[in-house]
Design goal:
The complex is a heterodimer of chains A (about 425) and B (about 240). With about 425 residues, chain A is α/β, with parallel strands linked by helices. Chain A is about 55% helix and about 15% strand. The mean pLDDT of chain A is about 85. Chain B folds into two domains: about 15-140, Methane Monooxygenase Hydroxylase, Chain G, domain 1; about 140-235, Glutaredoxin. In chain B, about 70% of the residues lie in helices and about 10% in strands. Chain B starts with 12 loop residues before the first helix and ends with a helix. The chains are: A alpha/beta (about 425), B alpha+beta (about 240). At the A-B interface, helix 1, helix 7, helix 10, helix 11 and helix 12 of A face helix 1, helix 2 and helix 4 of B.
């Protein structure tokens, strides 16, 4: 070993990464047959569902969202749709009003205007007016598939212990590179989320179209207006009270993913910061036996995952910049007389000089991750886009690195106590 | 509507244990691959050693023949080329061995033996080269390079500068690295250190004249120029 200060942590990181992926793979093998099944039927008497669309400056996308709600295969008299305009500065309110006016069938939709108080406050205000047994919330940047609500209701009736259900998320029409990576990311996370459902270890009820039993929501109390990620905060709270969260495998929602690095950075900054603060807020659950697999495995692994991500960035920088620095140093010693090196460009492959152990781990990890992705893609409706498969390879390096950088930035901000509007 | 019941929490111990066992197996496999590679390296180095031994014997035979017939014009150039090739081979494989040595955990002692072997080979070639220099009256610059991997932080700098000159001058310059870390085992190092008055590292001895401390690129260029009669060598250096 060259340098034990770097090598030992690297080997520990290999071990942990290997363990995690082995764990999820054997978990999948164990549950493979159960995951395919979904023999569920729609109840004869459909329950009333309240759908909330909190909107802030969404004039461009909200019409599509409303149309997707109208296309839901669900009796309209069993729907109550509240669009909460959270003090938008653009024409969101007018767009919604004209939509409701134009479509006679859209009479079950109501526009509520409030002063800008944030999404959580918008949700809380609408909970008060909700009449449905179920409470669904959909971000204005997301589109539901027509059968999504039906499938969720089937899920609730098949298993009465479920308190909150959330759909499978897909990136809506990925165009830019960043969006395509997110497409793969959402895909990769799906298999983990699905497996987590078996051990009641999910801690996010994503903004786009999570469906709550209203009774549960009332028991849990209002959405946290202070949290940066109120959808995760409420999921944590539900976990704390031992409620069951489940992903509905057959309900799909398409979400507009950030198109550029800077918008992605802003989104992830909020997510990471929110997650870290939530982990801190609910730290009592971590390594708590009363929370079973969620407390003993999922939460510690989430924390470890964050640590690994940051560590990975530093290791990458070390291995990437060290040779560059060394080359520069070398050139400096010889007064940048590079001619002899140019005439002496011999590329010999020396198999004995390869560091076999790290290479082995990297290939094994890569192979297993790809296997997970392929498994995941089998459950993705509409299948994986053909051109997405080769994008998975750079995904592992570039995208993870990018997320690592965002995470480090968040940590720095937290450590420096930089105030944000939470 | 009623509130759904609380979840029964479980701890799926067996899954964690199975995952752990598989991980340990995979991890062990990965680490043992490193050891297998380490052994393969030692084997390959040993093979190279045997070949170098033969090369050296061959050179010595040629030298004996040279002394026997006394006709230098025929033998000198080919002998020079053969020596140069042998030394190049030696230095390449020594570089590799030094990299392997850093990478090994188990075979530190094994590598120490190998390094001693290389050191002795280098010294043999150094003496040999000096003999040929006299016999053949040629114009090659010999540099003895005293360095240490353990006690000398700036040595790599000198190493890089020397490599640079080697790349430029090719067969006009021969470098013989002396790893002072092996001093305890190798008495010859002590003799040489005393003779050239080596008190600090790195030290380079250019055709019998020692220079202590890192000798920079421009400085070494001047020194090599002084040591050679060949204008061409002087010019490119």
């Amino acid at each position: 070993m060259n340098n034990p200060i770097i090598d030992i942590p690297v080997y520990i990181a290999y071990f942990i990464a290997l363990y995690l992926i082995v764990y999820w793979l054997i978990f999948y093998v164990e549950k493979r047959s159960v995951m395919k099944r979904s023999p569920r039927v729609l109840p004869k008497e459909l329950p009333l569902v309240t759908i909330i669309v909190p909107a802030y400056n969404e004039e461009k996308v909200i019409t599509k969202t409303l149309r997707s709600i109208q296309n839901l295969i669900y009796p309209k008299d069993k729907l109550q749709v509240l669009i909460v305009n959270d003090g938008s500065k653009d024409r969101t309110a007018q767009v919604v009003e004209s939509y409701i006016r134009k479509h006679k069938t859209a009479s079950y939709m109501t526009l509520i205007n409030q002063n800008n108080q944030g999404k959580a406050a918008a949700l809380n205000n609408s909970v008060k007016q909700a009449r449905g047994e179920y409470f669904a919330c959909i971000d204005a940047d997301s589109l539901v598939e027509p059968d999504a609500l039906q499938e969720m209701i089937k899920g609730f009736f098949a298993d009465s212990t479920i308190a909150i259900q959330f759909p499978v998320m897909k990136v809506y029409k990925p165009k830019s590179w960043i969006q395509k990576y997110q497409y793969v990311e959402y895909l990769a996370s799906m298999i983990i989320i699905r497996l987590c459902s078996f051990i009641d270890a999910n801690y996010v009820a994503p903004g786009p179209f999570s469906v709550y039993k209203l009774s549960v929501l009332k028991k849990l109390g209002p959405f946290d207006t202070e949290s940066l990620v109120e959808d995760q905060e409420i999921a944590f709270r539900a976990q704390k009270d031992h409620f069951r969260l489940k992903q509905c495998q057959t309900a799909f929602v398409h979400t507009h993913a950030p198109k550029t690095i800077s918008t992605l950075r802003r989104q992830r900054n909020r997510w990471f910061k929110g997650t870290i603060l939530n982990l801190f807020k609910y730290r009592g659950l971590v390594m708590n036996r009363n929370y079973g697999d969620f407390g003993l495995f999922q939460l510690p692994m989430t924390i470890l995952g964050l640590v690994l991500a940051i560590f990975g960035v530093f290791i990458f920088l070390y291995y990437f910049f060290k040779p560059i620095f060394e080359w520069f140093h070398h050139m400096m010693l010889v007064n940048f007389d590079i001619m002899p090196y140019l005439t002496d460009l011999e590329w010999k492959i020396k198999p004995l000089e390869v560091s076999l152990t790290p290479l082995f781990f990297i290939y094994v990890l890569l192979f297993m991750s790809l296997t997970m992705l392929l498994i995941s893609s089998r459950f993705y409706k509409g299948r994986l886009k053909r051109n997405a498969s080769w994008q998975m390879i750079p995904y592992f390096f570039i995208y993870f690195l990018l997320l690592g950088f965002f995470l480090i930035q968040v940590l720095v901000e937290i450590l420096l106590g930089k105030k944000q509007k939470w | 509507m009623t509130v759904p019941p609380h979840v029964d929490r479980h701890i799926s111990k067996s899954r964690y244990i199975i995952a752990f066992i598989i991980t340990v197996l995979a991890f062990t496999l990965g680490v043992s691959l490193g050891f297998i590679l380490d052994d393969a390296r030692i084997k390959s180095v040993e093979n190279q050693n045997r070949e170098q031994e033969l090369n050296y014997n061959g050179l010595q035979l040629q030298y004996l023949y040279l002394n026997r017939i006394g006709n230098t014009t025929d033998v000198c150039p080919t002998l020079r080329v053969a020596l140069e090739n042998s030394i190049e081979e030696l230095s390449e494989s020594l570089d590799a061995v030094q990299r392997y040595e850093k990478d090994t955990t188990l075979n530190k002692d094994e590598y120490r033996f190998i390094l001693r072997k290389y050191l002795q080979d280098n010294l043999r070639y150094w003496i040999f080269s000096q003999n040929i220099r006299v016999t053949c009256n040629d114009d090659v610059v010999n540099i003895l390079y005293f360095f240490s991997n353990e006690k000398c932080d700036v040595c790599p700098n000198q190493g890089k500068i020397l490599t640079h000159f080697k790349k430029k001058l090719h067969d006009k310059l021969l470098i013989f690295p002396i790893n002072v870390d092996l001093e305890e085992d190798e008495n010859f190092i002590k003799i040489l250190k005393a003779r050239y008055n080596v008190t600090s590292l790195p030290t380079i001895v250019v055709n019998d004249i020692p220079h202590q401390g890192v000798v920079g690129q421009s400085e070494l260029s001047v020194i090599i120029c002084q040591e050679t009669n060949n204008k061409e060598t002087c010019l490119i250096s």
